[in-house]
Structure formats: structure tokens, C-alpha cells
DNA sequence: GCCAACGTTGGC
DNA sequence: GCCAACGTTGGC
């Protein structure tokens, strides 16, 4: 079992959007960073747990999800006119990958980034490292559990 | 709105 | 292969 954190701008795609999708499931498209892609393509497994993070105005972990489908080609890379279109992507070499994510739970209260920074057990968390800009990143089981307990 | 940090691109 | 310039992310 792996644990992850996935960032999304709530204007673009929020945890409520995910919850309201059929079966609470949707594809996580549009990631255009190689390191993040590699996590999705190579390491995510069905049922892995995910912290859903809202970036932007009130950055916070807002709930949890599960990986519902392992890495597969991101079709938006091949859609001319899509914001995420990439001419280099072909059926033989899709370049960009995505996973499907299934809604699990929305926290009764969001756990803000500022709050996470105050927790000594989270000091080493990738999310909190200076300059970190990854939108998909691993978290440890301990970090995951710590954040769940903060949300209660 | 600003800006720090980072990844990518392209000239050399 | 280096590095300057640029675009983007994302916190504040």
C-alpha cells in the first residue's frame, strides 16, 4: 500500500467535483511534470490512498481518495485545443500519463498548510520542503495518519 | 499582485 | 554540456 498527496486548484477541480462524479471517480489528467508523471505511471496501484490537497487561496488538505485505476495514457495530450495538448504525444509514445481517483471522504474541517507546518512529526514532509512544486508526491504512512488525526 | 523557486528551452 | 532566459507554480 502506497500513500500519496495530489494537488488541485479547487477552481479547476475540487474534492466536491470529484465527489459528484459518477461513482465518485474521475481521471487525474493534465499533469505535465516528469517526476509527477513517473509516480502515476510507475508506482501508483489500485487502492493506494490519496490526500486530496487544494492549492491556491486557502491551501489545505481537504479529504481522502483512493487510486481506482493505475497509470494509463493521458488522452488530453492528444486533444488539439486542449490546454494540455502536446504535439510530441503519439499513440505509440503517449509521454503523459494519468490515473483514476475515487472519492473517499471529505474532512469535516480542512487541514491548512499553515497548520501542517506547525506539526513536528511532519517536518520532513515533501509538501513542506522549500521550493517544492510537485503536484503529485508520495507521503509516508505516518504522515498520512498524522494528517487524518488532525482532521478529526 | 508579487516574487521565489523550479523546470524547460535554446543558443553557443 | 553549460547557462541565461523564460514560463509556470503556488505561497504569501
Major sheet size, sense and barrel closure: 6 strands, mixed
Radius of gyration: 15 Å
Order of helices and strands: EHEHEEEHEH
- Separation of termini? 23 Å
- At the first level of CATH, what is the class? Alpha Beta
Task: Please give the number of β-strands.
Answer: 6
CATH superfamily: ph1033 like domains
Please give the oligomerization state of what you see: single chain
Kindly estimate the percentage of residues that lie in beta strands according to DSSP: 25-35%
Low-confidence stretches: none
Strand order of the largest sheet: 2-5-4-3-1-6
CATH topology: ph1033 like fold
Keywords:
DNA-binding; ph1033 like fold; alpha+beta; six-stranded mixed beta sheet; 20% helix; 152 residues
Give the arrangement of secondary structure elements.
Elements lengths: L2 E6 L6 H6 L4 E3 L6 H10 L5 E6 L5 E14 L23 E16 H5 L18 E3 L2 H10 L2
Parallel strand pairs: 1-3
Antiparallel strand pairs: 1-6, 2-5, 3-4, 4-5
The chain binds a DNA duplex (12 and 12 nucleotides) through loops.
